[in-house]
Design brief:
heterodimer; A: about 130 residues; alpha+beta; 3-stranded antiparallel sheet; about 20% helix; B: alpha/beta; 3 domains; 7-stranded mixed sheet; globular
Chain lengths: ~130, ~475
Amino acid sequence: MKIPAELLYSKDHEWVKVEDGRAVVGITDFAQDQLGDVVFVEVPEAGAELGVGDGLTTIESVKAVSDVYSPLGGKIAQVNEELGDAPQLINEDPYGKGWIAVLEIADAAELKGLLTAEEYKKFLSEEA
Amino acid sequence: MNQPLLFELGKPGRKAFDLPACDVPEKKGLLPETCLRSEKAALPEVSQLELMRHYTQLSNRNFGVDTGFYPLGSCTMKYNPKINEDVARYNGLALLHPLQPAASVQGALAIIYAVEEALAEIAGMAAVTMQPAAGAHGELTGLKLIRAYHRDRGDFGRIKVIVPDSAHGTNPASVTMCGMEVLEIKSEPDGSIDLEALKAAVGSDTAALMLTNPSTLGLFESRIEAIAEIVHEAGGLLYYDGANANAIMGIVRPGDMGFDVVHFNLHKTFATPHGGGGPGSGPIGVKECLRPFLPNPRIEKLEGKYTFGCSEKSIGKVHSFYGNFGVIVRAYAYILAMGGAGLRQASEDAVLNANYCKKLLSKDYDSPFDRFCMHECILTSKKQKNNGIHTLDIAKRLLDYGYHPPTIYFPLIVEEALMIEPTETESKETMDGFISAMQQIAREALENPGLVLTAPQHTVVSRLDEAQAARKPVVRWEP
């Protein structure tokens, strides 16, 4: 199970990569493995304003339909349009080509509520 | 054996019918040129024998309760007694027209009325409508009644419906369809309601709580009275999802538990055809406070005669005419044949079969809840995980043994779930056969995991690429 050291994580299994006041968001390797083969991703709407925990998108796998919650508040600056045609990117490259959206971070203090790679690893082992 | 498509069979000019020559003069120019096709439709050209063999061979591939064991959890695939089919085909019932005046269809109205009364008795409710065509339709209708009830009291702020995260997916979907908001609350690990989470969730915006009892984990929610009190004190109503009603008939009534609305699935609990042989029927029962809002027309009995009544506060019709009448007739035959004691026995036997299955399989499979289950039991593939075997593989391997797999990956809150609902209509021999196949698969998972991972081997087609089928569906044949 890959958990890159440089990223931040939520307890809902999203990852966050902070770059110049913006946050790239996706779901973790653990999350994609749990979902199984992803067959549909609802591409979020650019420009939408989200609060922490609001629904960012919906991912449909062969097993179930699951909500993805926004790990941070802010405006959606960019979305990964490619997921519309190639939902399998979530399985193949969850931390790279499977990114979901870029958020303009509204309140940097919210980053403190996220887990480090070490903490997320520990959280996963406790969950199991 | 691969069965070609009808389009791939036959030869030009071949046909399966022989019409007499046309005995009236042909008239041209009745339709403008733009409405006429310039080239002939590319329809299959096959002989009657080719046609018969094609469809008969396809029909032989059907799997149903009449061909084998079908333990699909939460779906109650019980046997449908064939006398119900005879009764539904009586000329006096099958040949009726829905627009006939009430005076000429008294028998049909008497049947609908009697089924309403029987269901009201079984559910502990004041009134029933037979209109909804299936469970989810019942949910939508029930939620509309709840909304109408709150609005009628001048309370327009109740827009939230609380749904536990163990609920059937139809619950939140029905809430959204009804224009209300879903408030999801986390369940306890055993699928029961977290009372503290519920207390924190209710308020002046609570329209209702939707609950399945026994829960989707097949466990009875024993704190239901406390739950009902919390919701009622906050001013909300309780909706009972009747998907699991096959566990409780004649034993406990949703109305007595504190529920205000309940739906039944006649195609689950009352032995009418489920699936391809449908249609379904999802009648709902309500407490007295919701009666005025029930769909019109209401069938009323006055001085021994049945008439159509109409309530001004009704939410309106939710189905053409009076619901799926043929299905209602079948359920009526079933209820009368079983009687009160028989229905209770059915529920008891359903619970017994599920517990028998759970007990005998809990050595080879992880059984996450150490208590008696109701009419369905949950196992997981945790013990097979180290050999790389998932629940999906076990389900696929069951096909090789000739069984329809149980429900898999539901409920969502149990990882790698397998949900087995044998129903009361299966014999001990059938149960033992299935259990022995499951035990054999557990051994294979240990000794020869490759066999399970590549299953099924003995079916018409081997394992299909479900992900690819969903990602890039081919929905049209092309030459």
